[in-house]
Design brief:
Aminopeptidase; 6 helices
């Protein structure tokens, strides 16, 4: 779940457009989501995205994924997205995206019930709580309808400072580590011992939200050189959703 939500000015509530969420309905909406991903990851955050089509973020997993999108109802513009890989489609392609960064052997017994999310981003003009809440309610609706029990993905922290903030944040998150039977192992580990671990860094809002909702941190971060991020392995058993978040997301999904 490579998730990047950079801060931006939030419009006043009265100025916020009407938004809706759902799975992409056609190839044009999927392409719009891929354009948004390229804008955020490559143009804004400087990621190296190998692509055959300029301005489009697309890899081999896209054809196997469903694409959750937030639409501006007035314009039809795609302003937020998550990429969703079901366990059935992961079996078809042969792996999860996360397996390029982590050894997931200890999660093998969860695979038939495990959905992977990633490539999450929001248009700069729509970065507010309403857009994020819609994305999460869309995920909750997907999980309810599919009957799957676990969400996995990679949650990203910028390494613009060389990784010191990421190392410091990881050391502060010990209480969120998973039971050992759910631990995964980075293929390209962030060199924690070579980095400062006392930097006063702020946890990205999306990661903070996952952990408050009951997600596990499944091990040490991996370094993703293409995105220049430290990626934390996240596992969310739907049974662990805290009561507050369960009401917020599941009630929203049912409405």
């Amino acid at each position: 779940m490579t998730m990047h939500l950079s801060p931006s000015a939030r419009p006043a509530k009265s100025q916020r457009p009407a938004l809706s969420v759902g799975l992409a309905l056609n190839a044009d909406e999927i392409r719009a989501a891929q354009k948004l991903r390229y804008r955020v990851f490559a143009e804004e955050l400087g990621a190296r995205l190998p692509t055959r089509t300029p301005g489009i973020d697309r890899d081999i997993f896209d054809a196997y994924c469903e694409h959750l999108v937030v639409r501006d109802d007035a314009t039809g513009q795609i302003v937020g997205t998550y990429r969703i890989l079901s366990p059935e489609q992961a079996a078809t392609i042969g792996s999860y995206y996360s397996e390029g960064e982590f050894d997931l052997t200890r999660l093998r017994h969860l695979r038939p019930r495990m959905v992977e999310i990633g490539r999450s981003c929001v248009h700069p003009d729509y970065r507010n709580g309403a857009t994020i809440a819609l994305l999460w309610s869309g995920l909750a609706d997907y999980m309810q309808r599919s009957g799957h029990e676990y969400l996995i993905g990679c949650a990203s922290i910028s390494m613009a400072d060389g990784g010191h903030a990421a190392a410091s944040l990881f050391r502060r998150l010990d209480s969120h580590l998973s039971p050992i039977e759910f631990r995964v192992f980075p293929r390209c580990p962030l060199p924690l011992d070579a980095l400062r671990q006392d930097v006063a860094a702020e946890l990205p809002p999306l990661i903070k939200g996952y952990l408050r909702a009951g997600a596990y941190l499944c091990g040490e971060p991996a370094w993703d050189p293409d995105f220049n991020t430290a990626d934390l392995p996240i596992l969310m058993p739907m049974s662990r959703l805290t009561a507050r978040y369960s009401r917020h997301f599941l009630d929203g999904a049912a409405s």
